[in-house]
Design brief:
CATH architecture of the largest domain: Box
CATH class of the largest domain: Alpha Beta
Number of domains: 2
Order of helices and strands: EHEEEEEHEEEEHEEEEEHEEE
Distance between the termini: 55 Å
Structural class: alpha+beta
Number of helices: 4
Radius of gyration: 20 Å
Amino acid sequence: MFKLKVSDAKLLRDMATAISILVDEATFKIEPDGMKLRAMDPSRVAMIDFEWPKTIFEEYECAEPTKMCINISELLKLLRRAGKDEAVELSLDEKTGRLQVKITGKYNRNFTMPTLEASEEEVPTPKINFNVKAKTTTQGLSQAIEDAQLVSDHVRIEADSEKLILNASGDLMGATITLQKGSDTLLDLEAKENSKATFSLSYLTEIIKAASATSDIATLEFSTDMPIRIDFQQTKEGKLTFFLAPRIETE
């Protein structure tokens, strides 16, 4: 049994949007200290690692750990009916096993939706030694990715100690986007060694577009031909991190 209340519906809606980029059915762990989700997309190319401590919630009641699986797209339909300053309360009806979604503000709405069978799969955090760590503005990173998407469906990200370069090449056109360390977009850059890896732009675009509503700062970590880790710094406590597998290029 649990009851969770968020005073700003936008906070919950933005987070649900970010999660919906990768998974349709989300299995949340609701524990006495907070709410967590770690899941891979169906193609197992990308992973999300999300945590909200109970301090983010206006009210948080959870007597014992439980799992809740829901269709995140269906939940989003309900959350989109809530205004920015309206409150949302989630609770589980133990008799019916349905999730109750209560929206309060200009007027009160009570919705119910089914819960699904929770996934038993434990998704481990990838253990990777990263050689590059780049701190960027989410807006700047988003614009650079959009530039690359004009010419290709994939992008090679390269880094040395002074700059981050995005290289994209298609059948007809190419693009090179350079972010210099200390610029308005690339706030910080650490490189133990020069590194490069290629990633799908469709995944990167969706992830950054969805997560940008929750964060102004993104930290990218990667090594040559290894998965990239993108951590979106949250304005409140909490974690929103994505991992994306590289695209292996063949000559």
